[in-house]
Amino acid sequence: MYDIIIIGSGVSSVFTMLKLDTHKKILAIDAGPSMENRLVQPSTTGFGGLGLSEGKYNFSPDLGGNLSSKIGENLVIKHLSEVEEIIDAFGGQSALTYQSHADIENDAFIQFLDCPTKHLGTALSKEVYNNIFAYLSTKIEFRFNNTVTNIEKTGDTFQITTSENNIFHAKKVIVATGSKKNPLLNKSFAKLGLTYQKTRVDIGFRIEMLSETFDPILQNNLEVKMRSGNLYSYCMNKFGRVIKRNLHGRVTPEGQNSREDKPSKNGGATF
Q1: For the domain 1-55+120-201, what is the CATH superfamily, name and number?
Q2: Residue 177's Cα: distance from chain center in Å?
Q3: Which 3 state secondary structure label does DSSP give 175?
Q4: Which of 9, 80, 168, 257 could crosslink 30 through cysteines, CB 3.0-4.6 Å?
Q5: Nearest to 45 by CA among 260, 247, 219, 189
Q6: What is the pLDDT of residues 94-120, one digit of tens each?
Q7: CB within 8 A of 76, min separation 6: which ones?
Q8: Is the dihedral of CA 131, 132, 137, 143 positive or negative?
Q9: What burial class does residue 146 get, using C-beta atoms within 10 Å of its C-beta: 0-12 exposed, 13-18 middle, 19+ buried?
């Protein structure tokens, strides 16, 4: 019997684990590969989820989902600060850190945002999450390559069944399966009275151009954050490059900062 079972070990689960009372008996189950395998074979699932990709953290309540409307902007800012402290504590102090300033005059269509950013890059992201895993694995049990197929509740106990025909029991369950829904759990959710809610999903496009083209906008900044209505820029790489990323069977462009390799003559922005 476990005190807590966590389904999924992506970014949200990792930071949840770090906040839990590790004196409790905790199990984390993930459909993806182990941390060891992720370090040698690219994957978007497994421990750390997409956190092992480019490792770019935008510490602004203006970007991302609508968490501010649920818990308030001040609490969001507090949690964002805690995330940065955790990253630094596990080896991320050398990350490229900068501030996007709203010091360019806004017009009727474009608003420039203040946004502190920490850009780890792929190599440092792997190092940080490997350090986190090394720490958590001494306190939490992990089961990888196990897809949860059923959740049942009897009295005060949950029964978890996986694709490997493993059965586990827990007093509490945290479901954090990420952006890729598990249809096998739909019946379980219905029985438990759990429902899906619509949320914003960002679909972006990437623009590559000569780095000098960015100069009138960037000026002396490494990056600026721009917003126009519900459209905004969330990634800008001066002298960076584009790499391919496989996400749920689709190949998507990913901006990589110049510290991963020698600088290119191109700059790129994702909107």
Answers
A1: FAD/NAD(P)-binding domain (3.50.50.60)
A2: 12
A3: strand
A4: 9
A5: 247
A6: 998 888 776 666 666 788 888 888 988
A7: 61, 67, 68
A8: negative
A9: buried
Amino acid at residue number 177: T
Q: What is the C-alpha separation between 38 and 126, in angstroms, rounded?
A: 9
CA nearest 85: which of 138, 128, 53?
128
For tokens 């005060």, the residue is 156
Q: Which residue numbers in the chain have pLDDT < 70?
A: 102-108, 179-181, 200-208, 211, 234, 237-271
If 0-12 CB within 10 Å is exposed, 13-18 middle and 19+ buried, where does residue 69 land? exposed
For 236-251, letters b (16+ CB in 10 Å) and e give bbbbbbbeebeeeeee
Query: Which pLDDT score is estimated for 183?
Result: 79
Torsion of CA 114, 115, 116, 122, to 10 degrees: -150
Q: What is the pTM of this model?
A: 0.81
Q: Cα 157 vs. chain centroid, distance in angstroms?
A: 30
